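Task card 7
Instruction: Convert sequence to structure tokens.
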Amino acid sequence: MHFDRHSFLLCNPMRLIVLILFLFPLFSRAQTVCSAESRERLESILEELSGEDLAQKSMNALNIEIGLRFLETAYVEKTLELPGEEKLVINLLGLDCTTFMESVVTLSRLAKQNRFSFSDFERELEFLRYREGTKNAYPSRLHYFSDWIYENEQKGILKDITEEIGGSIYENKPTFMSANPKFYPQLTDPDFVGQLKITEAAISRRTYHYIPKDDLQQHEAKIQSGDLIAITTSMTNLDIVHVGFAIERQGRIHLLHASSGSMKVEMSEKPLADYLKGNKSQSGIMVCRLQHPPR
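Output:
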């Protein structure tokens, strides 16, 4: 018997509505990019976490426990910069400093909420990575990390504690992306450049704080293992040049991060204060602490 699918759907509007509702989650996630190998690693981590009693641990403890699982993972930059429409990229086989932090924070939040599916990870990562938690075009991604901090504080994901632990005003007026569109293939679109200029202007109107690197050691005791560390810069057109997690070793705070120096995820050999002193362009740090997600 011949089956006319078009006529069937037209003659059965309620079935059409049900079909659309059923397929919508598939369409909504159609722009996720994740290799089979990366998905296998992610699902393996999620399965391991689901079998452990993690719900009672603090967010900071989860950051460290999960972050250490990525030690020795290769450092790979620009994994998010794919041609065409903006896509939600999930790559756990090659991480830069930001994608390392986003992956760990996403897993920590899921562990705290006892959610361990691939689709849970997709939704949580999108919520973290994009303005107002929704992926739209290229400018919706939180490209400047100080903007990432601000937006995710508004979402209730974290708290910027820099000022309360002794931070000073940080002059933050980034313009690097809009001034250098040649470095970003997506910025051949002048509308995207215009939207980034609006973002940069919004960042410059906010008040940010930082702990200058010369003052860091005296405030170090107020930083907890698992805190999010964003390294500020003396370059006037950039805001943040590196990120990682605070990790305590022998009474000192070190950095757990994806390093472009060693080309892998590692713990810094030197304490964070000494690590910063070795780089002239690094001026200090911002410090954030994850908040417990709603159950």
